[in-house]
Amino acid sequence: MAKLLDELDPRQALSDIAREFHARGWMRGTAGNLSARADDEHFWITASGRPKGRLDRRDFLLVRIADGAVVEKADPGNKPSAETAIHVALYRQFPEARACLHGHSVEAVAAAVRARKGAKGLRLPAIEMLKGFDLWQQNPKIDLPLFENHLDVGRIAKDIEARFRKAEPALTALLIRDHGATVWGRGLQEAYNRFECLEFLFAVLARGR
Question: Is 183 exposed, middle or buried (0-12, 13-18, 19+ CB in 10 A)?
């Protein structure tokens, strides 16, 4: 029987996820980044500029949550993605989060178009797949947190941290307009499952639901 993602070395699990996400069109080229906690104070994250369909254990950096500093890298040429700041913000805000997955899919970008300019949330369809986020209400009215895209990714991270400090989101996911989705979970398998559920919801929205 295949092992669950949480039973693998985090770098191996993230490499496996990256290959699958690439094959499904969610991480084309070098786009997107994935991370998982190594311990309570550090996380492994994919290095910048690496083709996501061909990662191995050397394509990761160990980052300190407290200040976002890189403390270990297998390849001297590895550089952290600017989006590392988003992962740092989420791990700081949600200590229970053990994994964070960020992709760039056509469906996510298309779904965000349905939200009015300046909107802070995107209403998700009240369909069965929401149960993947442990949302068990009848016909729930759930808004996915929506953030504006900025060339300065550090600004996006600050926006995320500021909003979630005031109020926790209804589900462990967010969307950056014209960019892509980020999902976090209490483990790699949960984050993977929830990312897959969210992409299903985006596909429904993109088809006009």
Answer: buried
Alpha carbons 188 and 37: distance in angstroms, whole number: 9
DSSP letter string, 129-158: GGGGGT---SS---EEEEE---SSHHHHHH
Buried residues in 30-57 as b, exposed as e (16+ CB within 10 A): bbbbbbbbbeeebbbbbbbebebbebee
pLDDT at residue 176 tops 50: yes
Beta-bridged to residue 180, according to DSSP, are 176
What's the pTM value of the predicted model, to 2 decimals? 0.95
Alpha-carbon distance 177 to 120, whole Å? 10
Report how far Cα 156 is from the mean position of its chain's Cα atoms.
Answer: 14
CATH number at residue 135: 3.40.225.10
Query: How far apart (Å, rounded) are the C-alpha atoms in residues 209 and 202?
Result: 10
Q: Identify whether the C-beta of residue 208 lies closer than 8 Å to the C-beta of residue 114.
A: no
Q: pLDDT higher for 139 or 102?
A: 102
Tell me the angle at which helices 153-166 and 84-93 cross, rounded to the nearest 10 degrees.
Answer: 10
Residue 1 predicted with pLDDT over 50: no
Mean pLDDT of 68-78: 93
**Residue 180 is inside which H or E element, if any?**
strand 180-185
**CA dist 168 → 14, 93, 94, 162 (Å):** 26, 9, 9, 11
Give the chain's domain count.
1
Residue ranges making up the domain that contains 122:
5-206
Q: Which two tokens stand for residue 182?
A: 């980020």
